[in-house]
Amino acid sequence: MSVFTGWRASLRIARRDAMRAKGRSALVVAMIAVPVLGVTALDVTYRSVTPTTAEQLTAEMGSADALFSDPQMGPIEQMPDGEMYLDIEGGGLENDSPSVDIRTTFPKGSRAISIQSVPASITTAYGIANTDVYEFRTSDKLARGKIDLVRGAYPHGKGEMAATEPFLKSTGLQIGSSTTLRNSGEKYTITGVVERPDELPAEALYADPGAVIAPWKAKADHDKKVLPPNAGPKSWLVKGPEAVGVTWPHIMEANKSGILVKSRQVVLDPPPDSEVPLAKKTSDTYSDSSGELSTALITVIAMTVLEIVLLAGPAFAVGARRSRRQLGLLGTCGGDRRHVRAVVLGGGLVLGGTGAVAGVVAGLGLTAAFRPMIEDWAGQRFGSLSLKPTELLAIAALGLITGLLAAFAPAIVASRQSVLESLTGRRGVRRSSRVLPILGVCMLAIGCAVAVLGGTSGDSALVAGGSITAELGLLACIPVIVGFLGRLGKRLPLSPRMALRDAARNRGRTAPAVAAVMAAVAGSVAIATYMASHSAEAKYDYIPSLAKGTIVVSSADEKAAEHLPLARTAVERNMAVTSKHADFRRVWAGSDCNIYEEGHCGSLELVKPTGAAYSCPLTGKGAEELAARLSADEHKKLMSSPACLDLKESGVFNTDESNIVVADAALLDTYVKLDDPEAAKALAAGTPVLLNPAYAKNGEVTVKAVHQYSEKDRKSWKLHPGKARTTVDKLKVYVAPAKYAATPGIRMILPEKTAERLGLHTRVSGSVYAVAHAPTSAEDQRVYGAIDQAGGGIWVQSDHGPSQREEDTLLLILTLFAGVVTLGAAAITTGLAKADAEADLNTLSAVGATPGVRRRLSGFQCVVVALTGVVLGALAGLVPAVALRLIDLREALKVMRMDPTQSAYTPIVLPWETLGLLVVCIPLLAGALAAAFTRSRLALARRAG
Question: How far is CA 881 from the centre of its chain?
Answer without folding.
Answer: 18
